[in-house]
Amino acid sequence: MSGEHASTDEDLILSIRAQYHFRDSPEGLLAWDVRRLVRRSRGLPVQAVPLAQIAELDFEHWYGYGEARPTVRSIIEHCQLMLAADLAYPIILDSAGRVMDGMHRVSKALMQGHTHIDAVQFVQDPAPDHTGCDPDTLPYDD
Fold first, then answer.
1. Distance separating alpha carbons of residues 132 and 26, to the nearest angstrom
2. Alpha-carbon torsion (21, 36, 98, 46), positive or negative
3. What percent of the chain has pLDDT over 90?
4. What is the C-alpha radius of gyration for the chain, rounded to an integer number of angstroms?
5. For residues 52 and 60, which has the higher predicted lDDT (pLDDT)?
6. What Cα–Cα distance (Å) separates residue 47 from each residue in 6, 107, 120?
7. Residue 75: what pLDDT?
8. How far apart are the first and last CA of the chain?
9. How confident is the model at residue 131 (pLDDT cuts 50, 70, 90)?
């Protein structure tokens, strides 16, 4: 039975669209594969985090790297992702409380009037998958 559950978890992870969490560093742009973050965060305790503590709500988040620009079309695409977001899955925070995965869920929760969102948080951040990278050259699948 547990093998069947693990297979279902892995199928769910593989169904996540290829995406990355980016962060600037002295070594250049760092990128974490979100699917790997989800795998690494399994088993972390879930906690309710006040949306007021999510600093990314007040900063540029989706448009700081690569070719992405805030066009009406791209904003509509983000709105569609927010509408499809499933609040049953906790967001992922780094050790300092910054969002590594889940801003569409955070946005949906805020739009729906929630005050908190479920989150898991790394005690120690995992190493990035890419260092000194260009977001437009990373592997994305359809």
1. 9
2. positive
3. 63
4. 15
5. 52
6. 22, 18, 6
7. 87
8. 31
9. very high
Q: Are 22 and 93 in contact (CB under 8 A)?
A: no
User: Where is 98: in which H helix or E strand?
Assistant: none
Cα–Cα distance for residue pair 91/106, rounded to 1 Å: 8
**DSSP E strand boundaries for the chain:** 20-23, 30-33, 47-50, 91-93, 99-101, 116-121, 130-131
Q: What is the pLDDT of residue 84?
A: 92
Residue 52 CB neighbour total at 10 angstroms: 10
Alpha-carbon distance 70 to 52, whole Å? Answer: 24
Q: How far apart are CA 7 and CA 45, in angstroms?
A: 21
In total, the chain counts a number of residues equal to 142
